[in-house]
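Changelog note: in this version the structure field was regenerated for every chain. One regenerated record is shown below for reference.
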Amino acid sequence: MSSTLTAPPVFSPETFDSYVMTTYGRFPIAIERGEGCRLWDTTGKPYLDFVAGIATCTLGHGHPALAKTVSEQMQKLHHVSNLYYIPEQGALAQWIVERSCGDRVFFCNSGAEANEAAIKLVRKYAHTVLDFLEQPVILTANASFHGRTLATVTATGQSKYQQHFDPLVPGFVHVPYNDIQAIEDAITDLDEGNSRVAAIMLEPLQGEGGVRPGNREYFQRLREICDQNDILLVFDEVQVGVGRTGTLWGYEQLGVEPDIFTSAKGLAGGIPIGAMVCKKFCDVFEPGNHASTFGGNPLACAAGLTVLKTLEQDDILANVQARGQQLRQGLGALLERYPQTFSEVRGWGLIDGLEIRGDARLTSIEVVKAALAKGLLLAPAGPKVLRFVPPLIVSAAEIEEALAILGETLAELLEG
């Protein structure tokens, strides 16, 4: 019996859109291959990638260590199920626990699923350990983003993601970010009603909400409030974890430890995986409480372990810190050049934002489209913030190249 390999069909947007649901506003290019921090589309045009699959391709594209691991693991064993022990899953969980504040790990496939797991864990802890008779409430922040499932989109503090999906899941209250008085008022108001606050769930740095870092003093006071009131502190590190901020975990930037934190995007460098990590005292899940068919399979866990080991062995965190500082300095120079257009540069490590003034006519999507035409891939974080999240292996020369392209782009848009 013989088989014949046929060439893939020639790509066309029209054919694509005939079969794929239009749930994304796609840019008019089709990516065919990548290497390091570079991508090439189906016409052969190269791009410098400062999106990294939205903060996901930790080691860039085609990294030799990750490619080798995935190839070898695929030939050995890629999936069984959680009916059995999976050695790769145990090894990845051990690595995470030994290098974080957590004690136990649950694996799934995405950030939304990791946050769903955290939400379910909080609710069971509230009912079984704290003996809540009232409705347990989770406080989350305005402008947050926690996922697209019904529970996580309800947790998300942005109404645009919730429109037409009601009835939403009860048990969430949104408060302003970095505002400790708002937290204290919400706890008091809910305690006077028929609900109690079971957890506070926040991003250490809001990504989709405009690349807004958490305030260190705010989070330290938050930890005190949680300890005083038997409230679990949950960090959504889906976008900021795994070295993105210049430390392995985002919470390290704030000097506090959460009781639960989630990870996903960068954890396996682009191979789908999610993780919910918790401290032992709130590990109340039992067999049958929660599960995932694909979660923690050998392929994803082998990839995740390779990404984490490579971060450590190649001292990539030092590169993130240096390149992040270099990037923010360059963006600061553009702010000084165009003070009537830009208002702030902010971020940690290699998750950085350049904010456009509210009264400026320019939008982030206009800049993204213009930069794309010049071979630089950027992502918006709302209508007025440009987001920069390159692979963590990005070089000094590539940072300078990106800044040069962005400078040319802005000159044409603002001076041309």
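Spot check on this record: Residues 13-63+315-415 form a domain with the Aspartate Aminotransferase, domain 1 fold (CATH 3.90.1150.10). The chain is about 35% helix and 20% strand.
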